[in-house]
Amino acid sequence: MRSWTKQAAMILFCISILLMSWEGQKTDAAMTTGTRGPVVMAGMATTGAGVIPHDSIRLRILANSDRPEDQLVKREIRDTIVQQMDAWVGKLENPQSLDQARVLIAAHLPEIDRLVGAELARQGISYDHQVELANVPFPTKMYGGLVYPAGDYEALRVTLGQGKGQNWWCVLFPPLCFIDAGSGEAAAQTVSAKADQGGGRTNAADKEPEVRFFLWDALTGLWGWVSGLFA
């Protein structure tokens, strides 16, 4: 009986070690995955596909609330603005500069404001909205495995109603747009030609199968060891 108790304790200890190792590798895969995945650097976030500099212009849309109808309106306005901005930025000279993008966005602020108002009216929504180009605060966020540090960043910010709902943001210049921050998804889409030509993009989700395979192999080995005790 004492021998069986000792063996059971050893099994539980081994399982605990494996679980802690798995959690550690899972965190490493999400935060620092070497050349294949994201790393965090001062002033920029980088992946194998390219670099998003600190000096960029973002688009941030704050929904009125987290109610489904308000989140849907946020997405509709997002699509309208991104589509229009892509058309405007595409007309800039190559290579494009941050100053060019800033002047272009500032010049079109009244039109962007009208686009937002028209979409709200089309949806039958009466709450106010605000459109501004300014340095605005961003919290620390992870998008698609990329960690973006908190700070004040230049952005085209659209506030819908009370602006208390989950927000969506992308980088207008350089043009790298990401999916909804509140969805928890790891996928991302890029709208720049450079990103399209740069090969496969990697994020933390690409590393997840490797972590799972490690755990499976370890458990398989542990099961073989336990089976040997009773052979």
User: Quick one: biggest sheet?
Assistant: 5 strands, mixed
The count of domains is 2
Distance between the termini: 17 Å
Q: Tell me the structural class.
A: alpha+beta
Percent of residues in helices:
40-55%
What do the pLDDT scores average to? 68
SS strand fraction? 15-25%
Signal peptide: 1-21
Protein name: Stage II sporulation protein R
Keywords: Signal
Organism: Paenibacillus terrae (strain HPL-003)
Description:
Helices cover 46% and strands 23% of the residues. With 231 residues, the chain is α+β, with helices and mostly antiparallel strands. It has 2 domains: 2-36 and 205-229; 39-201, no CATH class. The strands form 3 sheets. A 5-stranded mixed sheet has the order 5-8-4-9-10. Strand 9 and strand 10 (176-177) form a beta hairpin. Helix 1 packs antiparallel against helix 6 and helix 2 runs antiparallel to helix 4. The longest helix is centred in the N-terminal third of the chain and has 30 residues, at 2-31. The radius of gyration is 24 Å and the shape is elongated. Residues 22-51 and 178-216 have low confidence and may be disordered.
Overview features:
five-stranded mixed beta sheet; 231 residues; single chain; Stage II sporulation protein R; 23% strand; alpha+beta; 10 strands; three-stranded antiparallel beta sheet
